[in-house]
Specification:
single chain; alpha/beta; Immunoglobulin-like; six-stranded mixed beta sheet; 2 helices; about 45% strand; elongated
Length: about 140
């Protein structure tokens, strides 16, 4: 009985944490004249971030995503302006502009340093996690 209760608690914790995971974002550039060469652009952040928005040549291709990687297919080959905004709230805000050359039928990578956690939020999260583990330990001890 106690093993089953412990397994249930572990499963519940995993289910609660799953929605907070970052996911890769796949997008398509809006319709472009057929027959013209196109490529793809992959924006890769050094770590996952919330509120990631990306524009290519002024066209919004991703907005407010929680991700580490955004891939946009069907981008016209040639010079392109890629703008990336991310963070805010508990993290510092990131706004970067990149001029890239999109190669036809190839992937162009843009690597972006993700916004870092603010000091006050880091202290809060440390105390929060400490309280969480004390609570979880108390519940686990009560089950046993």
């Amino acid at each position: 009985m106690r093993k089953r209760a412990a397994a249930t608690v572990v499963a519940l914790v995993l289910v609660c944490l799953a929605p907070g995971c970052a996911r890769d974002v796949h997008s398509s550039y809006p319709a472009y004249a057929p027959g013209n060469p196109v490529g793809s652009v992959t924006v890769r952040l050094t770590q996952e971030a919330r509120g990631v928005s990306v524009t290519i040549n002024g066209v919004l291709v991703a907005e407010g995503k929680h991700t580490k990687k955004i891939t946009v297919k069907g981008v016209p080959a040639g010079p392109a302006e890629v703008m990336v905004a991310a963070g805010g709230g508990a993290n510092s805000r990131l706004e970067k502009r990149y001029d890239v050359d999109v190669q036809p039928y190839a992937d162009t990578a843009v690597v972006v340093a993700a916004p870092e956690m603010s000091t006050s939020h880091a202290i809060f999260m440390g105390l929060y996690n400490l309280g969480y583990f004390i609570f979880a330990g108390t519940i686990y001890a009560a089950i046993l």
